[in-house]
């Protein structure tokens, strides 16, 4: 569901050693018979068909519906619903324009890398100076869920793993991953079980419960 990379400046950067490691791992899953689907995040929205073909995965639109039993599950990265962060929304609208992307991708690879590094540093500084990370907007969430007629919504982006219970639907937030610090690795995923229920797992693969958000509606 996006943000597998810190940034992605184009599919011609697939030869980067770290990127190559990730692609090899995805391809190994594919050869093991695992079907992989990719949804763009705000950091890797430039992932394209060449990357998908190289890794044996299928690209998904940002809003994807899964039907399981009586429930409809709505999957989304989540950044488009952070409507309260006006500077970010303006930036997002700009970089998702085909003309902007074409102009950016036409620049030399190293120049694109440097631009991405500078943008990432600015983003990290902004987060460090903020009292709290931006969160999704409840009104935007309700509108999106109502539009798709979903009973369950799953997203990432905010790095605040939780289960939010509303009157009409439930919203699950996935954690981010960080296994570079052995003392306190973090991560996790949701599994859709055969009976249609969801089970959360932590970074070590142990079944766990996502905390109920204290301000859930």
CATH-defined architecture of the domain at 63-82 and 138-217:
4-Layer Sandwich
Order of helices and strands: HEHEEEHHHHEEEEEE
> In what range is the share of β-strand residues?
15-25%
Quaternary form:
single chain
Q: CATH homologous superfamily of the domain at 63-82 and 138-217?
A: Metallo-dependent phosphatases
Low-confidence stretches: none
Structural class: alpha/beta
The rounded Rg comes to 18 Å
Number of helices: 6
What is the element layout, followed by pairings?
Blueprint: H1 17-31, E1 36-39, H2 49-55, E2 57-60, E3 64-68, E4 71-76, H3 86-95, H4 98-105, H5 109-129, H6 138-148, E5 152-155, E6 162-165, E7 170-173, E8 188-192, E9 198-202, E10 207-208
Parallel strand pairs: 1-2, 4-5, 5-7
Antiparallel strand pairs: 3-4, 6-7, 8-9, 9-10
Could you provide a short overview of the structure?
This is UDP-2,3-diacylglucosamine hydrolase. The protein has 217 residues and is α/β, with parallel strands linked by helices. The protein contains six helices and ten strands, in the order αβαβββααααββββββ.
Structure description:
By secondary structure, this protein is an alpha/beta fold. It has helices spanning 17-31, 49-55, 86-95, 98-105, 109-129, 138-148; strands at 36-39, 57-60, 64-68, 71-76, 152-155, 162-165, 170-173, 188-192, 198-202, 207-208. The strands form three sheets. Strands 3-4-5-7-6 form a five-stranded mixed sheet, with no helix packed on it. A three-stranded antiparallel sheet has the order 8-9-10, with no helix packed on it. It has a two-stranded parallel sheet with strand order 1-2. A hairpin with a 5-residue loop joins strand 8 (188-192) and strand 9 (198-202). The protein starts with 16 loop residues before the first helix and ends in a 9-residue tail after the last strand. The mean pLDDT is 89. Residues 2-161 form the Calcineurin-like phosphoesterase domain. Belongs to the LpxH family. Keywords: Cell inner membrane, Cell membrane, Hydrolase, Lipid A biosynthesis, Lipid biosynthesis, Lipid metabolism, Manganese, Membrane, Metal-binding. Mn(2+) 1 binds at residues 3, 159.
């Amino acid at each position: 569901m996006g943000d597998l990379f810190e940034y992605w400046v184009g599919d011609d950067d697939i030869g980067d050693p770290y990127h190559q490691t990730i692609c090899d791992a995805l391809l190994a899953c594919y050869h093991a018979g695992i079907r992989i689907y990719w949804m763009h995040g705000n950091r890797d929205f430039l992932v394209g068909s060449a990357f998908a073909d190289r890794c044996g995965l299928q690209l998904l639109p940002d809003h994807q519906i899964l039907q399981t039993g009586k429930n409809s599950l709505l999957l989304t990265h989540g950044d488009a619903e952070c409507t309260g962060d006006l500077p970010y929304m303006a930036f997002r609208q700009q970089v998702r324009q085909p003309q902007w992307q074409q102009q950016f991708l036409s620049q030399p690879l190293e120049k694109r890398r440097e631009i991405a590094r500078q943008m990432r540093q600015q983003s990290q500084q902004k987060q460090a100076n903020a009292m709290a990370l931006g969160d999704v907007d409840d009104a935007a969430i309700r509108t999106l869920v109502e539009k798709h007629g979903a009973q369950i919504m799953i997203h990432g982006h905010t790095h605040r793993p939780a289960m939010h219970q509303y009157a009409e639907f439930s919203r699950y937030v996935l954690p981010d991953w960080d296994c570079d610090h052995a003392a306190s690795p973090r991560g996790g995923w949701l599994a859709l079980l055969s009976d249609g229920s969801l089970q959360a797992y932590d970074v070590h693969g142990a079944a766990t419960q996502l905390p109920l958000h204290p301000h859930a509606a």
